[in-house]
Predict the structure.
Amino acid sequence: MTKLVCQQLAPRIADLDANRELASAAIRSAVDAGADIVLLPELTTSGYVFESPEEARSVAVTAEHPLFAEWAAEAAGGEAVVIGGFAELGADGLVYNSAAIVDGSGVRGVHRKTHLWDREKLFFEPGGEPPRVFDTAAGRVGVLVCYELEFPELTRMLALAGAELLAVPTNWPLMERPAGERPAVVTIAMATAHVNRVFVACCDRTGTERGQEWTAGTVVIDQLGWVLSEQSEVGPASAEVELTLARDKTLTPLCDALDDRRPELYRGLAT
């Protein structure tokens, strides 16, 4: 079994040192609780509601920054994998909204958000490479960042590449919804899990930042599309799962979520 722990946090805007401590403590707590995979929010190290491109750049770091060595050290205590968001300063001098995939050996890879939401376009460059699947000690993990989850082309791509889990650091702005309804973004995550037969874990943030409230919609979803765990007042969203169940795409003896596709009918989709 694999234990997933999503650590919903409230980073401080443009305070790298405070967020560095916050993230390390959250990873340590999750690993101490037996986590095999620890998920942190989008832009954990920097905060989100920037006032200028210069402010975003002031807290952008490379994947070689010492804070990731701290993540690796905390992960090594339980042979865990950590996935968390950060403002990345690329070798090209551009700033990206990225997610780092870290284990005890260090940074395994970085995914740059390809589809930027709203004012993110003022501060970040969109990533130019598609998301990919990382083979980890805990399972096969595909990584997306927030808004990317709303593009079925990306989620299906990762399912076809063999992802067992989609790990999604998010910063979901609070939106109005009818009483009693889940946030629409959580419903999208549930549908994504169901149609691809993969586990989905979304780690949101909380609090209010420069007047922006957050959904605090952290959730872990099984490969059938049902919610296993949500953030609560007593602790993080956490679940023990058998990720290998995501390898079975059969819906009935005669239906298969992936084999029933007819790609010849979809060729015009991208154009």
